[in-house]
Write a structure and sequence with these properties.
binds adenosine-5'-diphosphate; single chain; alpha/beta
Amino acid sequence: MSLTSPRVANVFCNHIIAIDDCNSIWKRTQNQLRMLYGEAVFNSWIGFLKFISSGNGEILLSVPTKFIKEWISIHYADKILSLWQSEDDTIHSLDIRVIKEEGIIVDKKDYKNITNNCDNLSSPLDPRFTFDNFVVGKPNELAFAAAKRIAESSTSIAGSNPLFLYGGVGLGKTHLMHAIAWYIVNISSKRKVAYLSAEKFMYQYITALRNKDIMVFKEQFRSIDVLMIDDVQFISGKDSTQEEFFHTFNALIDQNKQLVISADRSPSSLNGVEDRIKSRLGWGLVADINETTFELRLGILQSKVENMGIDIPSKVLEFLAKNIKSNIRELEGALNKVVAHSSLNGKNVTVELARDTLSDLLRSNYKVVSIDEIQKKVAEFFKIKLSDIYSTKRTRNLSRPRQVAMYLAKILTQKSLPDIGRSFGGRDHTTIIHAVKQIENLIKVDADLANDVNSLIKMLR
Ligand code: ADP
Ligand code: MG
C-alpha cells in the first residue's frame, strides 16, 4: 500500500475529523511554521514535509531524505506536534517517514549548501545561525569579534588558537560556531571546515574503533582546516574520548589548523577533564558570553520580528525583554508562543495576551532561589558532601565552598544575615558577613573562583 496516495490518506485520517479538516489543519500548521521560522528555514526544511495521514492519535508526514528527516525531527517536530495539538487534542505523536516520491526534487545546490564540505564528519548547519542574524551587545561582543575574525582569516590565528567560547545554555555559542562555518562555506570555501558536537565526536570515534577504521578517522580529522567542537564538557569523565580528542587537538594545532571549542564553563572549571587538556584548552583566546542584558534581549526580539516580517507593538517586545531573562532560546520561544497564540485565536498581540500566554514561563523567570538549592548545588559543584556545607570542619577544601554558598545565599535570596546564619548550622551573622566579604575580594583576583561563582549563579537562576 502506498502511503503517498491521497486516497489512502483518507482511510488513515482521524475518524473524528474529516480529511478536509486534516488537510486544512496541515495548511494552517504550515502557515504557522512559515511565520515562526521565516521563509528561509521554511524553504530549506519544513517545506519538504508532506502530510500523509492522521489517525489513532498519530500524524504521519513524509520527507524525501533521511537527512531532512533527522534535522526536522530534532528542530521542528515538537513545534509541529504542538501546533497540530492546539487544533486537535486527540493527536499525541508525530511520525516522519522518508518516502522518496517522484516529483520531489531536492535542489542539489541547496542541499550541498546546508551540509558543507566535510560531509562525513560535520553536522548539518542551521540556516538561521549566521553572523547577519547574530545581534551583538556587551555580553557577547568579544565572542562575536573573535568568531568573525576566525571566519574571515585565511589561516589560523596564533593568539586565538583554540578559540574557546563559553557561557550558559541558550546564549549563542552554537549560533556563533555555525556562523563561522557558514561564512567559510559560502565565502572562503577553500578552507575545509567541520562543526560537530563533542558527543558526535565521541560517537564517530567509537564507530571508527568498532569498524577498525581508526586510521581513516584520524586522517579525516587531521585534514580539516577549521575544526569546531561544540559542548566539550560532554567529554568529562570519558577517558578514551578525551585521549583521542587531545591527540586530534594537538595534531591540528601543530599543523596550524584553527580550532574552535565551546563549553558551558571555562576550561579550568571543566571537572572530570584531564588537567593537561584543560590547560591546553585555555592556551588561545578564552571568550565568555555573559548573561544577557535588557538591551541585547530587546535587540534580539526586534531583529527576530523583522525577520519574521511581522509587526508587534514595542510595548510587547519590551515586556518580553524585561521579563524573560533566562536565556535567548527561551526568549525566542516566548516570542514564538505569543505570535502563534495570537494568530491561532485571532487576537491582537498585546501585553495582556503575552502575560496570559506565558504565565508559566514568567513564574519560572521570577524563580526564587532557596538556600537549600544553593547549598545542594554548591556541594554538587565542588564535589563535597552536603553535610559539609553545614559542618564546622575548617579544611580549606570545605570552607571555601561553604563561603561561596553563604555568599550566594546573600546575593541570590532576600534572606537576612541571621536567617542565612541559621541555615548554615546555626552560625552567627558576622560569620556570614565575613564569608561574603572574603568571596567578594577573592573573585576580583582569582579568575577561577570568579568563573565558578558565575557558573553557579547561572545554574541556580
Ligand atoms: P547555546 O549553544 O549557547 O546553548 P544557541 O547558539 O543554541 O545557544 O542559541 C540559542 C538560540 O538563541 C538560538 O536560536 C540562537 O539563534 C539565538 N541567539 C543566541 N544569541 C543570539 C544573538 N546574539 N542574536 C540573535 N540570536 C541569538
Ligand atoms: Mg549549543
